[in-house]
Design brief:
The protein has about 300 residues and is an alpha/beta fold. About 25% of the residues lie in helices and about 25% in strands.
Length: about 300
């Protein structure tokens, strides 16, 4: 089969690879129909995730048709059309029972990271009963790729963990696909204002059509100043980081209001500074979702 293969930072190739086979009775093999590129894949290509080894097939999002299932798989059969979850979950371990599926003791985010992923003609899915979702007849499969990772990541790790509520002023730093997903789904909770921040005017124009009340191009280094001007020096109630670099995380810290929430979605390949010397007096809640798939809470 053909697959996109990682060969070290900045190196990739479209290669012939062996078709995956069932290794465990809980596995399924899925023929990929649609897949996409995640910001995490870009971090891999930059070398930010050294756990990804030479020869790994990357990608963790997709929809497809079940080609084969192990003997223990009961929810799916050959020919079923499915959404592949970016997170592999056994559904039985201590962390899964707590709802912390991204920390599954026999899974989590492993596709395209620790095992071969979805940017290929076929992919092996461990714990298929808990890691695949059926596609309704007649559904738009291209649109459903967004449910594999991008939309739920923006919603769960950004909007829900950021605790967006009616009347909030929120800022979303990063107007890529995940940032746009946070922008769209934040409107379920009727925030008063949504400030989209990015360095690309085209993305900001799209953000405006998606519901942003304000847009700021941060290329000039004055984004913090502009946010504080928009909020009468109060700052924002929720800051959602959807990039994964130090400058955008520190921007969140600079614009958050007293009692506000920072929700980090971006995958960081470099350390960031938590400015406790300025944040301690504001008593924030910070949500740091590793790889964008779960979160820990730090009350300061």
């Amino acid at each position: 089969m053909k697959a996109l293969v990682y060969h070290g930072p900045g190196k990739k190739a479209w290669e012939e690879k062996p078709k995956p086979v069932i290794k465990e009775t809980t596995d399924a093999v899925v023929k990929i129909l649609k897949t996409t590129i995640c910001g995490t894949d870009l971090h891999i290509m930059k070398g930010d995730l050294p756990e990804v080894t030479d020869g790994r097939i990357i990608g963790h999002e997709g929809v497809g048709i079940v080609e084969e299932v192990g003997n223990s798989v009961s929810n799916f059969k050959k020919g079923d059309r499915v959404i592949i979850s970016c997170v592999t979950s056994c559904g039985k371990c201590e962390n899964c029972k707590k709802g912390m599926y991204s920390h599954c003791m026999d899974g989590g985010w492993i596709l395209g990271y620790l095992i071969d992923g979805c940017q290929a003609e076929y992919v092996r899915i461990p714990h298929a009963d808990n890691s695949l979702y059926p596609i309704p007849a007649g559904a738009d499969e291209e649109a459903l790729v967004m449910l594999s990772d991008i939309l739920p990541t923006g919603f769960e790790c950004g909007v829900l963990n950021g605790q967006v509520k009616p009347g909030d002023v929120i800022a979303i730093i990063g107007a890529g696909p995940v940032g746009m997903a946070a922008l769209l789904t934040s409107q379920f909770y009727t925030p008063a204002e949504i400030i989209a921040i990015d360095t690309d005017d085209n993305r900001l124009a799209v953000a405006k059509t998606f519901g942003a009340t304000h847009t700021i191009n941060s290329s000039d280094g004055k984004a913090v100043e502009k946010v504080m001007e928009l909020t009468n020096n109060r700052g924002v109630d929720v800051a959602i980081e959807a990039v994964g670099i130090p400058v955008t995380f520190e921007m969140c810290e600079a614009i958050i209001s007293a009692g506000g929430h920072i929700a980090n979605i971006g995958v960081h390949g470099k350390s960031v500074t938590l400015h406790l010397e300025t944040l301690w007096s504001k008593k924030h809640n910070h949500y740091y979702p590793p790889c964008g798939y779960s979160f820990h809470t730090y009350a300061i």
